[in-house]
Amino acid sequence: MRDLRAVRAARVTAGGARAALRAAALGAALGAFGALAPAAAAPDALPASDPGRLVRSAAIRTPDQVVLRLARPLARRDAANFRFTEASAPDLPYPIREVRADGETGLVLVVDGRLDPQASYRLEIADPPVSRPVRPAPWALFTTTILAAALINNFVFTRYLGLCVFFGVSRRRDTALGMGATFFMVMVGSGMLSWLLYRFVLRPLDLRFLQILVFIGVVAFMVQLLDTVLKKVHAALHEKFGIYLVLITTNCIILAVPLLNAAADAGAMESLALAMGSGAGFALALFLMSCAREKVELAQVPKDFQGLPLAFALTGLFALAFMGFSGLSFFR
Question: Is domain 55-134 annotated with CATH 3.40.1180.10?
Fold first, then answer.
């Protein structure tokens, strides 16, 4: 019995010694790590941000130049002092072929590759350590998105969407103007409400598979609201619209804008710009078509081309005219 107790006491003593040794080793390791951590982290530290102190502005000049405006001249102006990457691919820098002076405090970086003036990039300077994003101005992106949706990528003349309402209400100019204004209000209202529901409800709750049903419900709510308002405020215009006001609910353009915003994960400004540009483009298409169809009614048209065939021919001519906007860039 005494031997058993002695063995147990020896085991307890050995276990305590092992625990003490482990604690001492852990403490020594932590102390060594604490002493080495600052020295190891220093070489891998990223360049400091530059809140407008050194680089006053940075802009893309197509096709392969980056224009810098500095607060003071740089001591080093060689290509190795600069690093330029895409914001989405920071590990793949653009090779810099040349660094040219542009005035006393300006620099032009010439890179290998074609730059997109509407994309986001990142500029890093080694000496002095500076890092800053290179993005287009928000107002320029907003204006460009509106003009691109209205002219360059017009949903009617380049994508051929929303044709049922387009052909139905473009016979008279006053009806076309009223439908254009109504469509614009529905487009902006439903686009922003759909964006809010997608950003703060569908995406956080992982309910993206319901987005089409939700967007149709939002559009139906907006159309019903405008239908009630028009019936009370402008009964004559409401009567001219007829069934085409209800058809806005399932209009391809109305549904395309929220779906495009959701697919691109666009922000509030981009969603608003696309909605405004799409609504303005549809209103412009209605106005141009109504003017042309009113003029055509005064001409002698062969019987086989009267009505819808001639309307399709006019739409094709407008589409050819709008093709002239393709390739237009507002960042040159």
Answer: no
